[in-house]
Amino acid sequence: MTTIETSVTNTTIIDALPTLSSVLLQQGSSKIQSEHLERLAIVYVRQSSPRQVLNNRESRELQYGLVRLATSYGWHDDRILVIDDDQGKSGATAENRFGFQRLLAEVSLNHVGLVLGTEMSRLARCCKDWYHLLELCGVFGTLLADQDGLYEPGNYNDRLLLGLKGTMSEAELHIIRNRMDQGRRNKARRGELFGRLPMGYMFDASGDVVHDPDEQTRALVRMIFDKFEELGTARGVLLYLKRNHIKLPFRSYVAPNKGDVEWRLATASTIYGILKHPFYAGAYAYGRRKVDRRRRQNGQPHSGRVCQPIDAWEVLIHDHMPAFITWEQYTANQRRLLQNRPHPNTLGAPRQGQTLLGGLVKCGRCGWKMRVLRHTVAGTARYHCPSQEKEGDHTQCQSLPTDVLDQLIGSQVLKAVEPSALELSRKAATDIEQERRRLLKNWQQQLERAKYDVQRARRQYDTVDPENRLVAAELERQWEATLREQCNLQDEYDREGKTRPAELTPEEHRQIETLSTDLPSLWNDASTSAADRQEVVRCLIDKIIVNARGQTEMVDVEVHWCGGYVSHHEIRRPVGRYEFLADFERMKTRIIELRGEGQTAGDIANALNAEGYYPPRQRQKFNAVMIRMLIKRLRLNSSRADAVNNEHLLGENESWIREVCHELGIPQSVMCKWCVRGWVHARKVMISRRRWIVWADDDERERLKRLHTHRRIGPQRCYPEELTTPKQREPK
Description:
- 49% of the residues lie in helices and 14% in strands.
- The protein is α+β, with helices and mostly antiparallel strands.
- Among the domains are: 3-185, Rossmann fold, CATH 3.40.50.1390; 578-636; 651-724.
- A hairpin with a 2-residue loop joins strand 4 and strand 5.
């Protein structure tokens, strides 16, 4: 049917509305009651898209013409309400359809007697929304009307017919969507379905996708990929662009500036979009994202999109587009982006901080990646295995301070790069010069673009009639703005050329060579960031496996270098107690021997340091204060030494008073009082001084425990006689 025929047909329908209304009025006069006429008659007008609103005028006029149908049913003009707030919105859902929501509100307030629409699909194409409206209309006695008749939702036959119409309306929407989706998929299989082209691409006159003819745009796209390969993180590329004030071209796709290019600073989403888009590798892809309805958010139509892995893409055609990089480089970039994520199974991106091996250290016991725990108050950090925490166990697998392992790996890395230091210095000088040339070229391109804008503004000003001051004044203002921008760019370009010339000076070459000969100074210099050190380590080392020997200070380290070589090392970590030291028993025996020889604490400290013993906290060496505290803590004082050297003085069931008190948990001063009072069988011997020897078998030890725990109650507050009378000893 032609456009003229369609217009004639729709006009005929509009003209025939009075005749149609008379027939419908005769059929539905019994359903319209006085209570319906007392309420509003709502005419709901909706078209699915803005294009339909602009082009399908007959449909719009036909829907507005329902006002005359409501008048023929008996409603006055002032009681007829037209709701057209949903023009250009789909009826697939009630979300963001404020007109439909207003209709539901009016019905639920018992303000509506009749709802009119050309078709039931105009009201809703979703059964949930449609039956919601039917339920409200049935409860409040509201009638529904379309071109086919008048319906009462409370009536069984009418409700059955309305339900069938709602189902057909939803099925029609599904059929339309399925037909459009199949056509879209078929076009995508041929690699001809395009949306917005990414930066650096455009359509030529024949409709093919080609590189942007702008040389600066192509150079910036290549710069982003080169800097990502150099820096390793998308955030590093973003900071590099902002630090050098580099702007990217953004093409507008909406009116009134559709097709124009605007230069703005880059954002994180822009960098990630460029690095992840397969167009830049020459591949056409369709189905990279799918909509997860569980993640949809109200008011955000584009929310809920989930990125799919490459294997799940519906269409992938290699070598279909002009490329900036190879497919191998693209897949390497995706792996690097995945490894930069902070996940237990990934390395994570290099970060600022004092740690050197974040993401590289793995536990030798359970295979988990050890994470970095930082102590905010002390300023220290540890490599900690979280496997027990993940499994709900509060025990600790293993951990060690970061500085102990970082010092080992740092020294090994310096040894590895020392033979190639001179070659690295030359390459560094070449890279610096290349980087400066690239930046200066970008400044030159910006300056050239500014000159073109000035010339264009001048040509526009010259073509205008001088007497037309309204236009001439605006063009003059634009010309002056472009001139100011050109002057600012020229000043910045001159400043950049003076501060960072394209060629390195002899002094700069000499500084680079000097630093290459002294790598430890360069490594430990304050200007070398932690992220730079981490990047160097990751270029050389694949992973590091640590395995502590129990609770001791000894840790075995396996360094897996890139290329397959594995080196084995041994380090010492600080431990919490002397008992955790691997050679604690030998050190304890040695201290007792030195004490028995009558040496002082200072002499013992010097002897231990000379023999290679270490404190648990990894101090450099022992001192006299540490030895005194250790002797007191381990009870290695003179009395203990005397006890060890005079064991022959003890008889059967006899012990030194210190050992008995320690075993029974009785203070030594209390036991001495009991010995004096005769409550305990005891005798004194003279060694270095007078010391008590206590006789106590199992029964006596039990009595002494009860004596110590007895609580004296009553006015006399005395102990029972059976507790203070010692057991009769057999004669020797």
